[in-house]
Amino acid sequence: MILLTLVTLTASFCLGLARPGGDLPTVKRHGLGPESYIIGGEQATSGQWPSALSLEFFSLNNGWTHVCGATLFRNQYALTSATCLLNNAVSDLRLRGGVIFRDNPGATNGQLLPIARYVVHPEFNLFVQGVPHDIGIIFLTFPADTSADNVQNAVLPPNTANSFVHGNCFAVGYGRYIEEENSFSNTLQWVRMFGLFNDDCANRVQGVDQARIYPGHYCLLSDPPGKGPCNGDVGSAIYCNPSASDTSVLYVSGVVSWNAGSSGRCNLQFPIVTTRVSEYLEWINDLAP
Fold it and tell me: What are the backbone angles phi and psi of residue 174, rounded to the nearest 5°?
């Protein structure tokens, strides 16, 4: 059964919700282990995605390990998925910025960014069908140093006018880049994605158990399908130009939330579902002015 896939910070493996004996799609949930990957992506270069952050989780067994993505904005704040934060002690979380090689953050003068606190959206509920409002804000202990090109603030959409339904969108994240291999990329990866209208997305996820598309969602597919974010990339940004012809700026249009999966794998023939950032601008601006 194909399942809806999320990130939960209480497990170290993929928590697929498949029914016994079935192989149909359902909402797939991702664990905290090193199963982070953008399938079919390309390696980023230093300064290419300067607002992309790695959210790390501490455990006695593994020490500090990358578990989710996040995005720097306004120097002292980061956006991520609520599922990456919920019920986790602040002392067990930290961020890194400006990192291309996860095993050598100093190679690109990466920054360690301690976390003071976090807030998840008040309407978020992990167990609601379709997992709406999957967004959280991280407050850094001190501002990031944005004097270098490899750590910079992301640009949020100015309003809700742009639906970002075009092919100049990009998913960015850390980890495994070939699903069939049981090895993981050490580098920041990116891949081009195409934004969809919500009605189109809802039609495409019909038959995916537990899936539902809300106005606060934003969906994307690669062309052809088969590339995109999966485990460990939840919380990462989707960056979009204003249009296919206007490449003047990249906006953070989405925060990766879930996709379809089965047998512990993401099924990237279905859209990737993100939280539409423009729908939460008032909430974001109230907390992070």
Answer: -105, 150
179 vs 151, residue with greater confidence = 151
Structure tokens belonging to residue 87: 């019920």
Let me know: does 209 contact 25? Beta carbons within 8 Å: yes
With a CB cutoff of 8 Å and minimum separation 6, the contacts of 202 are 212, 213
SS3 88: coil
Residue bearing the bigger pLDDT, 229 or 218: 218
* Dihedral (CA of 156, 218, 233, 129) sign: positive
Burial class (CB in 10 A: 0-12, 13-18, 19+), 158: exposed
Alpha helices, DSSP H, located in the chain: 198-204, 281-287
Structure letter (DSSP) for residue 200: H
- CA pair distance 255, 120, nearest whole angstrom: 13
Q: What is the pLDDT of residue 116?
A: 98
The pTM of the full predicted model, rounded to 2 decimals, is 0.87
CA distance 53 to 39: 18
Distances (CA, A) of 189 to 50, 97, 178, 185, 273: 13, 14, 11, 8, 18
d(CA 276, CA 214): 10
pLDDT at 154: 98
195 forms beta bridges with: 220
| Residues 6 or more apart whose Cβ sits within 8 Å of residue 252 | 51, 71, 73, 79, 154, 155, 156, 157, 237, 238, 239, 277
Which amino acid, residue 137? I
> What is the C-alpha to C-alpha distance for residues 235 and 225, in angstroms, rounded to an integer?
21
In 3D space, the residue among 212, 255, 210 whose CA is nearest the CA of residue 234 turns out to be: 255
Reading the block at residue 185, the tokens are 């990329």
Which residue is listed with tokens 């704040």? 77
pLDDT digit string (tens) for 92-142? 999 999 988 777 788 888 999 999 999 999 999 999 999 999 999 999 999
